[in-house]
Amino acid sequence: MSGQSAASLRKKVVVALPTEQYLSWGRYPRTVHQHVHRPAWNDQLPGILQTAAPGSLLSYGLGRSYGDSCLNAGRELVVCRRLNRILGFDADTGMVRCESGVTLSDLIEVFLPKGWFLPVTPGTRFVTVGGAIANDVHGKNHHRAGTFGAHVRQLGLHRTHDGLVVCSPDEHPDMFQATIAGLGLTGVIAWADLQLKRVGGPWMDTGNVAFHSLQSFLDLSRESDGRFEYTVAWLDCFAGRNTRGIFFRGNHSEQRGRNSRPKWSPKLPFALPALALNRYTVKAFNSLYYHVHAADTSASLVPYDSFFYPLDSIRQWNLLYGRRGFLQYQCVIPENNLEALEEILDRIARSGMGSFLGVLKQFGSAPPAGLLSFARPGLTLALDFAMRGESTLQLLRSLDEVVRQSGGALYPAKDARMSPALFEASFPRWRSFVPFIDPAMSSSFWRRVTEIQ
Amino acid sequence: MMTITTRSSAPRIARMQKIVVLGATSGIALEIERQLAAQGRELLLVARSPQRLSELQSDLLARGARQVLTIAADLGQLQQHTQVFDFVRRSFANFDTVLLAYGSMEDQKDSEWLVDVLVDELNVNFVSAAALLTLFAADLEQRRTGCLAAITSVAGDRGRRSNYVYGSAKGALSLFLQGLRSRLHPAGVKVITIKPGPVQTPMTDHLANSARFAQPERVARRIIRALERRSPDVLYTPWFWRPVMSAVRHLPETLFKRLAF
């Protein structure tokens, strides 16, 4: 444009006001970022990286990490949402190339009508492909398919000094492995090639079974793994040692059901008063939830979204937890150590600080896709805790002890407070990851758990 | 393929099947194109960067567009216009809608003392736009069909202290469209003036409060509806800008000149 000649040569660095707008899903900790870059095209990224101060940047997608792994307090974010183009699709093989800000929701919307589905999906569709790779997310089919990263065939990575690095299991395999589950620290993902999966349609054959002990959960899980592609359990975390829960399982269906779900979904407009979710209301909810599902154990045909994404139907459900936000606690415990899991549930029940979302899943034995992948053989338990200050942090620290002694690990994508020691115990290989970190990148989480500034 | 019905008793005609977007990589245009692609329309995109055009083309095809043609050109340069126009006529004959979506908003402070910045700003936002619209208008007028639309701005409704350079160019474009509408009316060619309020796009990222600006998805949806119905003549989006700007236009100048916004 002729405007380019004079005007853009003198393009000033725009100093935006520090903004609190970018939080993580748990809305804790509340951080302030110095500057937020919002590139709309991949060609803008080299410039952003090259003019950045060392350790100043972190990519940010939809902010669905729960703790501080998507935050960069006092520094800068590169928000990748506008980098959301699908760059190519092979209708014969189901291989899609997309930019890192494409959401899983986008992919479903575009490719499910063509008979393709995500190879692995977490419990929300509102995450970006870049975020799914950086956290190497898992889903209800971990026992069959492994993690998200296992289905990435190749990716383009913007690096400060190396330009665009194309990596895959064959080309720069070390960088490829470091970038999967690399917490966004190895550079900014430009695009990724993702292998989609053929499905018969948008419907799921599902069933649920009530269980009353961790052992019976494990038996159910082992028995179901061969027959069901997707398995997961909900657990009443107020029950303590009198474990009770519902085991959900399902397969993609060729059949078509009757669609009765409304397109519209309710949205929480603002943070609820902190008291709305107290031990009595949550306990009542858990009891109700258990009885409703325990009573209905018949097989049923349900739409994929109500099976995979029940919480997506309430937009901004994180506001349920009030202004102070919440913490999620997700650990994995080796299978031969059910006592540790019982101890954790017992400590939670005794504290009275349980959540209405206790989720339990048996991971499969797939080898980790990334250097810092969280998923590993064992049982993984995820729970929410409203942030109530020191009492909450104290409870979680007491759970940390059990996890550590059991030889388990905590999930960085859900964490806002684990100690450097527990991180080291969870990811003993983290030091070999350090050389792959791009000089421009850092995150609140990384500085906290490694104590490297 | 999709047919749009009109409310009148006129015969059903397929409207807005082939759309030319001038400034196809601008923030609002991107959203419009994506929504049109999902509806299976045909698009011809004009923008500066061949690389960006090719990324955009892949995306729109994957999302369902029936056809996506692209041509790289700097529309701010008048001498490139005929080449673009010839390409459109040759490769995309019988296009029925033209949307002009580009604009430039430099920091006004620069154009207050650098005349070349001022002139560039006026050239891009008004002169080049008027020149392009004139080319396309002649073609549609001759075929006695179609719709011309251009994105101007609420900033063109009154000259403000902080943004009068951009505002005057957009205001001039709005006046130009007004006259063009009247000229093309007998030929049955529709001219739509689109006046968005501030929208969350790369053009406005540097402005304070940009987080409170309108979502481009919503603005795009409204613009597409106006293009399909070929109504109203002047679209304010979001809607509340119409009463707001009406009030702003009626403030007495003695008062208005004292307002620091």
Distance between the termini of chain A: 43 Å
Strand and helix order of chain B: EHEHEHEHHEHEHEHH
Count all strands of chain A and give the number. Answer: 18
Bulk shape of chain B:
globular
Report the span from N to C terminus of chain B. Answer: 47 Å
CATH class of the domain at 203-417 in chain A: Alpha Beta
CATH class of chain B: Alpha Beta
Name of the CATH homologous superfamily of the domain at 203-417 in chain A: FAD-linked oxidases, C-terminal domain
**CATH architecture annotation of the domain at 203-417 in chain A:** 3-Layer(aba) Sandwich
How is the largest sheet of chain A built, in terms of strand order? 14-11-13-12-16-17-15-18
Overall mean pLDDT of chain A:
90
Helix count of chain B, per DSSP? 9
Q: Show unreliable segments of chain B.
A: 1-12
> How much helix, percentage-wise, in residues of chain B?
40-55%
The SS-based structural class of chain B is alpha/beta
Mean pLDDT of chain B: 92
Largest interface: A-B, 29 and 34 residues
Structural class of chain A: alpha+beta
For the biggest β-sheet of chain B, the strand order reads 3-2-1-4-5-6-7
The tally of strands of chain B reads 7
Description:
The complex is a heterodimer of chains A (about 450) and B (about 260). Chain A is built from 14 helices and 18 strands. Chain A has about 450 residues and is of the alpha+beta class. In chain A, strands 14-11-13-12-16-17-15-18 form an eight-stranded antiparallel beta sheet. Chain A is globular and about 60 Å long. Mean pLDDT of chain A is about 90; it is low at about 1-20. Chain B is α/β, with parallel strands linked by helices. Chain B has one domain (about 20-255): NAD(P)-binding Rossmann-like Domain (Rossmann fold, 3-Layer(aba) Sandwich). A seven-stranded parallel beta sheet of chain B has the order 3-2-1-4-5-6-7, sandwiched between helices. Chain B is globular and about 50 Å long. The model of chain B is unreliable at about 1-10 (pLDDT under 50). The chains are: A alpha+beta (about 450), B alpha/beta (about 260). The interface of A and B includes residues 2, 14 and 99 of A.
